[in-house]
Amino acid sequence: xxxxxxxxxxxxxxxxxxxxxxxxxxxxxxxxxxxxxxxxxxxxxxxxxxxxxxxxxxxxxxxxxxxxxxxxxxxxxxxxxxxxxxxxxxxxxxxxxxxxxxxxxxxxxxxxxxxxxxxxxxxxxxxxxxxxxxxxxxxxxxxxxxxxxxxxxxxxxxxxxxxxxxxxxxxxxxxxxxxxxxxxxxxxxxxxxxxxxxxxxxxxxxxxxxxxxxxxxxxxxxxxxxxxxxxxxxxxxxxxxxxxxxxxxxxxxxxxxxxxxxxxxxxxxxxxxxxxxxxxxxxxxxxxxxxxxxxxxxxxxxxxxxxxxxxxxxxxxxxxxxxxxxxxxxxxxxxxxxxxxxxxxxxxxxxxxxxxxxxxxx
Length: 362
Hints:
Strand content: over 45%
Mean pLDDT: 86
Number of domains: 3
CATH superfamily of the largest domain: Immunoglobulins
Distance between the termini: 119 Å
CATH topology of the largest domain: Immunoglobulin-like
CATH architecture of the largest domain: Sandwich
């Protein structure tokens, strides 16, 4: 029989099915359809395309159902083939849940229908019964029904799906508080898988392998690292919870600048540095050959802040160098500013006899 139907295109449908937990073993099988219900002369389901289907608890998987030549006469190009998947996910022996879509037959060769299903949540590996139902031209909601009007063309394949438990990966970092300095190396370690693939911000950073660790020194502030753990036996995989890393990159925005003052004046050295909260000003009296930490007291104040003040500067402080060491109290990230030179001058006094005297008030 010639069946010329206008070619149609359909998208796969994802059906989200919500089921209870605590299902164990295998469900009872729904009753088979009466023999002779369908005639698969023109088209039939390729049973190998659904054999051994494995799902993972609570996860979405897609069946690709192949519609191929029939037992006697191959269907015509453009014939619309509807596939419906029926499932008994509550284990009562009746198919309650279904999803369907169609493909346009190409002669020769057939066509494929992709159908996606969310597996029930289980606490142990569980086997469920399913039925693939092929009908020419018009979909049906009855797992044993012919086309409306009794047209018999189609096919049925009963099958089972196994719902396994996916891995439950835990990801840890060698940096316990997940706060590092820019460029620091961090190692992430994953568990509960046979193979692992590591991601940074959802992009694969280390290809799938049996290696359970991932070391990197290129993280930026706020980057999220995750791992996908794979169970080779069940084929199930799961992503871990992400680890978000804070990356500090202390940078000196403003260096302390040289100062020239008169003896007896006050002077302040300042530095602007981001990502730090700890400061220590230092002084060198030997041209930078060595430095010593300053303490508050005497003429010094603010030695542990971004601004060092020297009060009532004496002439003997001329040619001293001042620099600041800065860090972050969480992870250090130390840096040191350039040294700023302090030059101290004596004041000049002109008498009424036009004789100039240099006066050192100290």
